[in-house]
Amino acid sequence: MTVDALTDVPGLRVGHATRTGDGWLTGTTVVLAPEGGAVAAVDVRGGGPGTKETDALDPRNLVQKVEAIVLTGGSAYGLDAASGVMAWLEERGRGVRVGADPAHVVPVVPAACVFDLARGGDFRARPDAATGRAAVEAAAACATGAPVPQGCVGAGTGAVVGQLKGGVGTASTVLASGTTVAALVVANAAGSGTDPDTGVLYGELFQGKRVAYPQTRVHETARRRLAEAAARNAPPPLNTTLAVVATDADLSKAQAQKLAGTAHDGIARAVRPVHLLNDGDTVFALATGDHPLDPEHPLALNEILAAGADVVTRAIVRALRAAEPVDGPGGTWPSYEELYGSG
Prior knowledge:
This protein has 343 residues and is of the alpha+beta class. The protein is built from six helices and 17 strands. It has a six-stranded mixed β-sheet with strand order 5-3-15-14-13-12. A five-stranded mixed β-sheet has the order 1-2-6-9-4, covered by helices on one side. A hairpin with a 2-residue loop joins strand 1 and strand 2. The radius of gyration is 19 Å and the shape is globular.
């Protein structure tokens, strides 16, 4: 049984730590790999990224597997959340062995951040090492295959897409080969997730099903409310959409890097414009290695690449539909469903 989430890739778990109220509107999300790690790669397309340990994922470099990926709010300050995840992993002897003693490990924990500073009202309210530990503990406490909370949770707590409230979304698919491909996205973009002329979500135009366009009256009311909110909010200086796309296929680091790269197409279908200088768009890829690719078919990777982009698009749509509106000291951001309904 699948739950249409990243956790449909066997062994992956997701945990959120969420802070709201008293100036807070931020959090951290951790994707925890099976013990022993998963092959990992990354592709960064945005012009203003905030990352940690991404160089370790280059296929030319030593590290082959990682135990966890951290997605966090707080801009570059929030990358401190990865330290809490590292400490938790070290306590369990999980990481790259660097000595004869099994306790001598260095956990390689790649991380990326979104900009959400002061969206709750307090510029200094941002994730730290304790937030990261809380998120990885939440992931470890989940059963394998558990549903993943979506919307304004974890790293998506303070996320914004254009003038709409953003958040966390996730989706998965099982290919005819039996291979699972899934994604988890933190949708927080400078660009818009909606067509300005109709109000339809861009991502829904690529899902292969009939699109329900909002009524003209509803769209005009939504546009007016968004304009009013934009007039009250400070211009967003930075944003960033983050994603983890994962599969149970047996991929090399180079193949995983290709998956991370093509998964960016999924962002481009759901957000326009994308990969701007004030975005830090970053996609991680994880491969757990349970399903070998058919050696008789050198293009077997193609269906995984295509599916990776598709699930990223669906995850962004689900993030926008799951988001809840925010009206607080840091700004006002309506949600899509508040303006347009569930469709």
